[in-house]
Design brief:
95 residues, single chain, mainly alpha
Length: 95
């Protein structure tokens, strides 16, 4: 499994390097308060990374945190219920 992750990471690294090398046109990112001169490849990679991070934060905020809250609530409810004891074993006919 670790080898598979390494191969996937190397593939994504190679694709990122390829995008950066093939898109060397200079551009200027103009924000309201500043301008940043950069290459178009770097701008593409940074915008993709920002999109992944923002999407991940949205998933965490809307799915993961509510699920953890439900799980904690269920664990507290389960801990409050007394355990069911099994009936004592009766000396029988050995079955």
């Amino acid at each position: 499994m670790n080898m598979f992750r390494l191969v996937i990471a190397l593939v994504f690294l190679a694709v990122g390097l390829l995008v950066g090398v093939l898109n060397t046109q200079p551009i200027t990112l103009d924000f309201l308060f500043a301008e940043f001169p950069t290459s178009s490849g770097a701008a593409i990679i940074v915008s993709l990374l920002a999109g992944v991070l923002i999407g991940g934060l949205i998933v965490v905020a809307t799915l993961v945190l509510p699920m953890y809250a439900k799980l904690r609530k269920a664990n507290k409810a389960q801990a409050a219920v007394p355990p069911v004891s099994s009936p004592p074993a009766s000396p029988g006919n050995g079955i």
